[in-house]
């Protein structure tokens, strides 16, 4: 079996090599000639999987180690009887970590408090739901714009999503102090998201608003966003991970963004490993249906290996400012998004070519997820804050109480 895999899929050779010959390729420059003799194609979001790419090839299975599928021509795969699997939810924790690291950065550098602000989320898929749950766990006032999920919630013939989720219109989300964008990019249908955050929508955004864009580029009208930033005299705080026209990025938007990163919000070590593992599991299920006697690596199928532990396993926090600062310092100890911002700006000072964007992704300095780290505090409220954003806790205050007894 010939397997073509994106070189940025961690553990691809270790997981798939017992199934066939694995060839690692640059996903951005993948061509029909390279996949012509492949039986299995494994990609990430930078590869557009279309009829043009696959026509005349031997490919019978496509796997995408990502949560989104807007880069996959699903109707063509169905027509060509090509099996498909993806990795929904694999990087939800990582993207949520990115959101809270961005907010922590704004607090520590600009004293932009967000815990008491109203939070608006666009998109309630795996990522949006994870982000929502964290904000809700922190006690924030959260609302969501996702007309499809709202319809599901109100449909008596379907399982309710979550009765506690407050779905609202887009205008209500745009009135929030923090706006998190996690919708897929769509150009058609009843609710297309392309340029959804338009000039008219941006006019509703108040001074001091924080926008975190970590879904797909093209959802925001970037020239209109730059103009709105100018109208507000810079009092609009931008955490930008995705860009229209990637790998090309809008240099004018880069200059005004508080945080600018090369589409790496989901690039935690564990998130990327989960993506590869989920695609492997999908391929194993496909092969098992074709050959019931196929012998598979059960350890890998069950996910008992191939997921890394974190480098920083434990943090002890005892000195307090306000709780927002405590949370920010704990978050930044595991992942400070300013690192990725600084690296992007440094590389773009050297070279503004489109290849720089992909170089940063390919040579990303991997980070761990918050859930790989345990926090010890001597305050119950601090514990609850860290737990809400997915840290484990090992409370010092419990041992102090027991010691006093």
Automatic annotation (TrEMBL):
Domain Erythronate-4-phosphate dehydrogenase dimerisation: 307-385
Catalytic residues identified in the record: 216, 246, 263
Pathway field: Cofactor biosynthesis; pyridoxine 5'-phosphate biosynthesis; pyridoxine 5'-phosphate from D-erythrose 4-phosphate: step 2/5
E.C. no: 1.1.1.290
Positions contributing to NAD(+) binding: 146, 241, 266
EC top class named in words: oxidoreductase
Localisation: Cytoplasm
GO biological process: pyridoxine biosynthetic process
Organism domain of life: Bacteria
Family annotation (CDD domains): ErythrP_dh
One GO cellular component term: cytoplasm
UniProt binding sites for substrate: 45, 66, 267
Keywords recorded for this protein, A-Z: Cytoplasm, NAD, Oxidoreductase, Pyridoxine biosynthesis
Main location (coarse class): cytoplasm
Chain ranges of the D-isomer specific 2-hydroxyacid dehydrogenase NAD-binding domain: 115-265
Domain D-isomer specific 2-hydroxyacid dehydrogenase catalytic positions: 10-288
GO terms of molecular function: 4-phosphoerythronate dehydrogenase activity; NAD binding; protein dimerization activity
Family annotation (Pfam families): 2-Hacid_dh (PF00389), 2-Hacid_dh_C (PF02826), DUF3410 (PF11890)
Family to which this protein belongs: Belongs to the D-isomer specific 2-hydroxyacid dehydrogenase family. PdxB subfamily.
UniProt function note: Catalyzes the oxidation of erythronate-4-phosphate to 3-hydroxy-2-oxo-4-phosphonooxybutanoate.
PANTHER family: 2-HYDROXYACID DEHYDROGENASE-RELATED (PTHR10996), D-3-PHOSPHOGLYCERATE DEHYDROGENASE 1-RELATED (PTHR10996:SF282)
Oligomeric form and interacting partners: Homodimer.
Name recorded for this polypeptide: Erythronate-4-phosphate dehydrogenase
Source organism of the structure: Marinomonas algarum
